[in-house]
Design goal:
single chain, Rossmann fold, Helicase, Ruva Protein, domain 3, about 50% helix, binds zinc ion
Length: about 600
């Protein structure tokens, strides 16, 4: 006897054998019991989940000869049942609409439908891939559906029900099939392996079930191949080789590399995979799915029903989820999705995969822009903070703010601020000069210093000068610096939050940021300008330095220099934004001005 593929050999012959579609089969059984047979049915859903199978079982139920009327489960042994199962029943006509989709075929069908069934109760047309039928043909079909002969039943199986005209759909009962659950597919595979006497490891079956991706038929066809390619026992490795999947461990290693921003780890792994013969596109696809699962594990927990994977994979997803924030994962998923879709039409797939993975590693180093903005501008948050959480300033902060301002929080979540903004009806985002009165005495100073003193400072600074250090005080020079740099609001915000002190001939501002962040904001130009300004004010060479290691200070709003121009132009001038633009080709989409909100 010739070999029969598993999907056909074990095709369900009764509603109760159909896996994972109880909501459909139960409804159909009830309808038959109540003798409420429709003339048109649409079965929709992904491929390989039992649409045509259910259509055939329904046909058997309708025409089964074991009773005088349609039965809720076919007997499976009468002439009708056996013929329908074999596909040679005269009164059950299966049409592949992908190839017979034109008006002529449907006209023919319509003509034939007028005649009574040859032997059985109903003349049944099963149209597979029904969405492929042409519009004209659908119109011809519609005529029959509008006034169907009582003996005719149409069953339309489709993966794209939305492509079936509404006029047709409204005349049919529509059943949406569900993707089959992982556990159900796994159970089915286990059962079949036992019935076929194929020894199989549980993790091998789990991988097969995952590869089926909600489709029983796909899972079974891979099982077919696996059985054919394996001599004795079905193991995880043999299945993995068969479907070309990289070991799940590799996915974990990549994401660990991303978490550690270790580009080397990532490139080494890619090299190993490629040299083992894995396809970059396939790996990218695996990684997309893995990241999706990790994201779900992060959001809904590893035991969520949203995850259709084995227990081992759940644990793995949870381990990786712990390394990232939800936002990180969303960003990585986006990067990999884009990488995966690009790989399809690119040459040099390997390089594009590497690029995508490196992008993730780099993205891991980036802070969200909102977080960045609120960290460098803690004192200027005029935005309302979340209600019910008053933040008391520490004693040192109170001393600095004195009685000018009420206690402020150092940090207002940008998201809270943003939602507060959105809930304020009149608030506008791009606040401009009108909302932001210019305070006198800023611009003049800046221009003079930039023009004259700046270039010479670096030389003067080099000379040691021991006297009169006490005459200059950090507090007054601080004002000079903030005024001078008023054209760079982000830098000013950062400096406002700094701890200021005189250290020898240096004016030092200590900020709670990394030196990388400082370098991005406090550029060489800014240093030169600030040094020139304080040197001018103190009447002696003073070097302006910004160093890491400070604790955030609360500054008074009065010190804030007025800004020139709109929020957007200030954003454009900002050094952090500029270097983002230069390094990553970023563009400014929306400017939300947290500083100016009342
Ligand atoms: Zn029967």
């Amino acid at each position: 006897m010739s070999y029969q593929v598993l999907a056909r050999k074990y095709r369900p012959q009764k509603f109760s054998d159909v896996i994972g579609q109880e909501h459909v089969t139960q409804t159909l059984k009830n309808a038959i019991e109540q003798e409420r047979i429709a003339h048109g049915y649409i079965f929709s859903g992904h491929r390989g989940i039992g649409k045509t199978t259910v259509a055939r079982i329904l046909a058997m139920c309708l025409n089964c000869r074991s009773a005088a009327k349609p039965v809720p489960e076919p007997c499976g042994v009468c002439d009708s049942c056996t013929e329908i199962r074999a596909g040679n029943s005269v009164d059950v006509i299966e049409i592949d609409a992908a190839t017979n989709r034109g008006i002529d075929e449907i006209r023919e069908l319509r003509e034939a439908a007028r005649y009574l069934p040859a032997r059985d109760r109903y003349k049944i047309y099963i149209l597979d891939e029904a969405h492929q039928i042409t519009d004209a043909a659908f119109n011809a079909l519609l005529k029959t559906l509008e006034e169907p002969p009582s003996h005719v039943v149409f069953m339309l199986a489709t993966t794209q029900p939305e492509d079936i005209p509404q006029t047709i759909r409204s005349r049919c009962q529509h059943f949406s099939f569900r993707a089959v659950k992982f556990a159900d597919i796994l159970g089915q595979l286990r059962d079949l392996a036992r019935r076929e006497n194929i020894p199989a490891d549980e993790d091998a079956l789990a991988l097969l079930a995952e590869a089926g991706d909600g489709s029983i038929r796909d899972a079974l066809s891979i099982l077919d191949q696996a059985i054919a390619s394996t001599a004795d026992r079905l193991t995880l490795d043999s299945v993995r080789r068969l479907i070309g999947a990289a070991p799940a461990r590799a996915l974990e290693v990549v994401m660990q590399g991303v978490a550690e921003s270790s580009s080397e780890k990532i490139l080494t792994l890619v090299d190993e995979l490629i040299s083992e013969g894995h396809s970059p596109a396939h790996f990218a696809r695996q990684l997309v799915r893995f990241l999706r699962n990790v994201t779900v594990a992060k959001i809904a927990g590893k035991d969520s029903a949203l995850l259709q994977i084995s227990q081992d994979e759940r644990a793995r997803a949870a381990r990786i989820a712990d390394l990232f924030s939800e936002e990180d994962l969303a960003r990585h998923l986006q990067i990999m999705l884009r990488t995966h879709s690009e790989l399809g039409y690119r040459q040099d797939q390997r390089f594009h995969l590497e690029l995508g993975l490196l992008k993730m590693a780099h993205a891991q180093r980036l802070l969200p822009l909102e977080q960045l903005l609120s960290e460098v501008a803690p004192s200027t948050s005029g935005t309302p903070r979340p209600a019910g959480r008053p933040v008391l300033a520490a004693p040192s902060e109170l001393r600095r703010t004195e009685s000018q301002t009420p206690a402020r929080s150092n940090y207002v979540s940008p998201f809270a601020a943003d939602s507060a903004r959105k809930n304020t009806p009149k608030a506008e985002t791009g606040s401009d000069l009108a909302a932001n009165p210019v305070r006198p005495g800023n611009t003049g100073g800046t221009v003079v210093i930039m023009g004259s003193a700046a270039p010479v400072v670096s030389e003067i600074v080099a000379e040691p000068q021991a006297t009169a250090a006490n005459e200059v005080n950090a507090e007054s020079l601080r004002a000079v610096v903030l005024n001078t740099l008023s054209g760079q609001p982000m830098l000013v915000s950062m400096l406002e939050a700094a701890e200021w002190s005189m250290e020898g001939n240096s004016l030092v501002a200590r900020v709670a940021l990394s030196s990388t962040m400082i370098d991005m904001s406090f550029t060489a130009d800014a240093r030169r300008i600030a040094s020139a300004a304080v040197s001018g004010a103190a009447g002696k060479p003073i070097k302006m330095q910004v160093l890491p290691g400070g604790t955030p200070q609360v500054a008074s709003p009065e010190r804030r220099p007025s800004s020139n121009g709109s929020a957007r132009s200030r954003a454009e001038q900002d050094p952090v934004v500029r270097s983002m633009q230069e390094k990553f080709g970023a563009e400014i989409r929306t400017v939300i001005d947290y500083r100016e909100k009342p």
